[in-house]
């Protein structure tokens, strides 16, 4: 169910699959590196299905896709390598703080707040940073890439489709890097996440033209922010 709902939001808005899934996995006690590896392994299938669905519906701008995908993959490999070498309990509070910031970003977008007024002239730099932080936080590619591009004047349909398709390339690189360093044991969780995601992907791509995004973004932002605040408070009092 988590995978299905997360993919519905991600495929329609270009964000939040990794954030929602990773926030919940952290909340049930998985170490950050394990949670990120689990989410990204599931996302190999779900992002592939999502990207193919967006390509089928003509939502992908291929020039933007390549300018995001290649730098994003490089940043993702670097971020995954750093994450795998840091003890989970040390980095957990920082990951939760990062997720809280992204949750606030989603809320700002839900209320129509422009994050910037300048167009993106170097999407490769954006892709690299988004890939780096996505690997470390177990999510964040969409909120950074999609929100920034749309806030700077990008067409909603082409931006969401291109970001979702590029995420497939980034996810493969992040997942392979984390598995090479720490392995993957939670195959039951992976199977649940990817099954729900694959079922939802085609429907989400169709919804991109019809879904009122404000309400969904508000709900996602509140969910991510709430989970992150709870985890930070629990860390402080423990």
Features:
single chain, mainly alpha, 0% strand
Number of strands: 0
Low-confidence stretches: none
Mean pLDDT: 80
Strand content: under 5%
Strand count, sense and barrel status of the largest sheet are: none
Q: Please state the structural category.
A: mainly alpha
What proportion of the residues is helical, as a percent range?
A: over 70%
Order of helices and strands: HHHHHHHHHH
The end-to-end span amounts to 31 Å
Radius of gyration: 16 Å
Q: What shape does the CA trace take? A: globular
Secondary structure tally, helices: 10
What is the topological layout?
Blueprint: H1 2-13, H2 17-27, H3 32-56, H4 62-84, H5 88-110, H6 123-137, H7 141-151, H8 156-182, H9 187-207, H10 213-237
Question: What does this protein structure show overall?
Answer:
This protein has helices at 2-13, 17-27, 32-56, 62-84, 88-110, 123-137, 141-151, 156-182, 187-207, 213-237. The two termini are 31 Å apart. It is 81% helix and 0% strand. It is built from ten helices and no strands. With 238 residues, it is mainly α. The mean pLDDT is 80.
Short description:
By secondary structure, this protein is mainly alpha-helical. The protein contains ten helices and no strands.
